[in-house]
Design goal:
The protein has 10 helices and no strands. By secondary structure, it is mainly alpha-helical. Helix 1 crosses helix 3. Helix content is 76%, strand content 0%. The mean pLDDT is 83.
């Protein structure tokens, strides 16, 4: 696929914005997926190609949070298990299913998250000193993480909101730690999804890597923001991004 200079610049700029939004909250792919489709990609190819930027962005974010000691891995095995199983199932469905089926899932998940943050913000932002729950003692977290993995494998756009609901809402991780774990889980199920898409020959590498240069830059900026700002600011940033994601999902 031929990439013009204007398209390349647009992908990098959108990638930076999406990298910041996707790292701190979710919904960055609501910007990048339409951009790839405007360039002429079929929805399933755009969905697959977009994962290159998502994976590399997430790796940069993961390294940044780990370097700042914000990545809590004490319960990572039980957290990863249902997410990876769901991610594999979602990726297989995405490789064969029409992309339009995800709109009701995306809109419903983000509307729910918006209402939760507005009506009962402590659900998504536990008070200081809250001890996180273990997965084995919180059965509901299996369903939340499994669904997040499935949805992330299916389309990825907006999965951050679902992951934060499971990590901060159900397992009660502090918001910054929940964001760091969200990034780790995104690396896991996006890697699985990308393998499936590569096997189906649905990834266009040139636009994917151009997009990734922007998303990685955005992720680097986002980590610095997450480390420095207060949880209350992150919470309301999450709310604004969730509302914007709802609008974007409705207009798709």
């Amino acid at each position: 696929m031929d990439i013009s200079l204007i398209h390349a610049v647009a992908l990098v700029i959108l990638g930076v914005i999406a990298g910041i939004i996707g790292t701190l909250a979710g919904g960055g792919s609501n910007l990048t997926l339409p951009a790839l489709m405007v360039m002429g990609m079929p929805p399933e190819v755009a969905n697959a190609t977009n994962r290159v930027g998502v994976l590399l962005r997430s790796l940069v974010g993961l390294i940044g949070f780990h370097a700042n000691s914000r990545l809590d891995t004490r319960d990572i095995g039980p957290i990863l298990a249902p997410t990876l199983v769901g991610g594999l199932g979602g990726a297989i469905c995405a490789a064969f299913a029409p992309i339009w089926i995800v709109k009701p899932l995306l809109l419903g998940a983000m509307l729910t998250m918006s209402l939760v943050i507005l009506i009962k913000p402590t659900v998504i932002s536990p008070p200081e000193g809250t001890i996180p729950n273990r997965v084995k003692s919180t059965p509901a977290s299996w369903w939340g993480l499994g669904f997040a993995g499935f949805y992330g494998g299916l389309v990825e756009a907006g999965v951050g909101f679902i992951l934060l609901g499971a990590l901060a809402g159900t397992l009660r991780y502090p918001l910054v730690n929940a964001i760091a774990l969200k990034i780790l889980l995104t690396v896991a199920f996006t890697g699985i999804a990308l393998v499936v898409f590569i096997a189906r020959d649905q990834v266009l590498w040139m636009p994917g890597l151009i997009l990734a240069t922007g998303t990685m830059t955005g992720a680097h900026i986002a980590v610095k923001i997450a480390i420095k700002v207060k949880s209350a600011c992150l919470k309301w940033f999450l709310f604004v991004m969730t509302v914007c994601g709802c609008v974007a999902a409705w207009l798709k």
